[in-house]
Design goal:
Blueprint lengths: L6 H4 L3 E3 L2 E4 L5 E6 L7 H6 L4 E5 L2 H9 L6 H11 L6 H14 L3 E3 L1
Antiparallel strand pairs: 1-5, 2-3, 3-4
Helix pairs in contact: 3-4, 4-5
Length: 110
Amino acid sequence: MTVFPDDAFLALVPVQALSAEPGEGGTVVLIRPKVLSPRWGWLVRLMAKPNYRVKLDARGTAVWQACDGSRTVRQVAEAVAAAFPEEADTTLRTALFLRELALGRFIRLA
């Protein structure tokens, strides 16, 4: 049985793959196209609202801003732990959140 996050995952570098805009109260809103495949690009032009808008909370915003393409997952988790010292087990929570962002194609793990 493997333990998540393992050293291989913690060594990956998360890179932002989508655009974002400022939200309310200093948070971030991620903008993700509903159709990611270039093959279906023509369909996007027909949609009234072609993008999803994902509003992040303060913790999610801290994770997103720490994913600058130069920090590893371990360094991102340490930055979030420093920003939110009152929360427990930030490494696991941050790693799980980054994994979900990667599955949703919000970030790439290099």
